[in-house]
Amino acid sequence: MDFLDNLIKTFLDFDAMLAVLPQLLGVGLVNTLIISAAATVIGVVLGMVVAVMGISTSRWLRIPARIYTDLFRGLPAILTILLIGQGFARFSQEIFGPSPYPLGIIALSLIASAYIGEIFRAGIQSVEKGQLEACRALGMGYGKAMALVVIPQGIRRVLPALVNQFIAIVKDSSLVYFLGLLVSERELFRVGQDAAVLTGNLSPLVMAGVFYLIITVPLTHLVNYFDNRFRTGRRRPAAPSSGLNEVKELDAVTPHITGSNT
């Protein structure tokens, strides 16, 4: 019984949990979502650029994209965050002031963009070559065909992987605390850790973990839902003359795409 009592007091002290709840909601959760959302948006933009460079026929674009991807995927996330957060602190102070908050977002964005770039590249390259060939047969240029037909299909196919990446960013946002955030900028982990030090038990950290689960578990099930739905959609039997059908489908939407040229 003593062991069980100690276990409950260490991890399930509800008084300590309730005491830290307002900070977790008003400060930790808000900052975690801001950091994660900002890093995801920037990561998606940079990731698309990296993906397009990675599939380019020019090796002057392909090689830098490959180096960028290998670099930020190969380094541990905490190392990247510390190198950027501490290495560019002096420059950041002139722009953002003393807060390392923006540098934490930038570091997470660079890490995320390397993974998201690979996700986009795989999605774009999974689109059947017949789609691009049909577009070219209809007189569309390479760039226009990619932007209006191929890339949108590739993005749709990798939506579950993108949600998975957002989940990873939410969890990696806890590493930003190593940069020494201001009190008003603390994320879930830092709020829970500070409260755990003050109370002398780990219940506030357990409460912070509950908030991470509230964010990530529904998203995980959403990923599974999308993945199953897309897989079911791709199981439909293809028509015998799939190439002709692709041309007919593209011919139907061509007036909307090229209407300004006719």
From TrEMBL:
Domain called ABC transmembrane type-1: residue spans: 29-223
Bilayer disposition of the protein: Multi-pass membrane protein
Listed Gene3D superfamilies: MetI-like
Keywords from the UniProt entry: Amino-acid transport, Cell membrane, Membrane, Transmembrane, Transmembrane helix, Transport
Subcellular location: Cell membrane
Chain segments annotated as transmembrane: 20-50, 71-89, 101-120, 166-184, 204-226
Domain of life, source organism: Bacteria
One Pfam short name: BPD_transp_1
Main location per the UniProt record: membrane
Family classification: Belongs to the binding-protein-dependent transport system permease family. HisMQ subfamily.
This protein's name: Amino acid ABC transporter permease
Record organism: Arthrobacter burdickii
